[in-house]
Amino acid sequence: MKSTLRLSIVLPCFNESATLEYSLAILRGVLDGIEGISYNIICVDDGSTDDTWPEICRLSGQRAELHLSGIKLSRNVGHQNAILAGLEHVGADCDAVVTMDADLQDDVRAIKQMVDKYREGNEIVLGVRRSRKADSFVKRYTARMFYGLMKNSHTPVVPNHAEYRLMSRRVIDSLLQYGERNVFLRGIIPSMGFKTAVVYYDREPRKYGKSKYPLSRMFNFAVEGITSFSIRPIRSIFLIGMVSLFLTVSIGIYVIVAILMGRSYPGWASLMLSLWFLGSLVLVALGIIGEYVGKIYLEVKHRPRYFIESTTGEVQSTSQK
Ligand code: UDP
Ligand code: MG
To answer: Does 239 lie in the same domain as 190?
Structure first.
């Protein structure tokens, strides 16, 4: 007989009061239908400014059937850190965790397939979107650019996989050993090397509340991802420098030949152009190096990722010690 799998679901919540009750009801319906599991749900309030926390406390107190507990972080620390806060509190007896967005845009029914894959011996099961038809035009194209950039900078992300995944106890314990302050889970988890499977699902448009990822935040997220995994941008500066040196030498030879042959050559325009061209190259190069230096600066301070302001329900520490 199969032993009962103790599953924890971690939901990061930032201003999700409009969707929580609906999401938890759907989630519960699906989880109750999976055989051989016991579960608990942990909502991490990532410094919301709406009624998310009172809503988590209310549901946790009044709806025992949800097996819900909550952690309120003292301020907004971002999606990735909120997930880590949840993982650090799933409790020492949990066998596996599923992380997913609180708006349930990702099809919850895929959890059943994730559990099946886990039982087949996979330690990481990644939820991957079948298509991006439900996305807006802008989101679709920025996502394509995002994955293109990731691929070119050798960042190990799986296209169309976000934060919907199952991880075994061993994966969580290993993940919590990563000491970096700026975590990029989409890159770290697929690169850990544990046996991995993929589950495909359809993503629905958001039913309640608004997206917390405007373009500027997505851009920052992409920079975060690339600089977490790759020094290719710095290497490419060297390459661009070499190409521009080659161009400069070629233009120099052309100028000398033109003078020897007594031909006049365009002066002011070419001078200004090359001046601005090289000036911009230097600034871009400094900017790229600056990104990495800034990252080192933030990492060496080793500041805590988050502080817990309050908890509700049964919140435990993940540590088995
Ligand atoms: N989220 C969070 N902290 C943030 C931003 C977002 O915990 O600073 C959560 C949010 O509540 C949701 C998930 O991250 O559960 C994904 O956010 P959202 O649905 O807005 O992103 P989108 O689906 O639009 O990419
Ligand atoms: Mg969403």
So the answer is: no
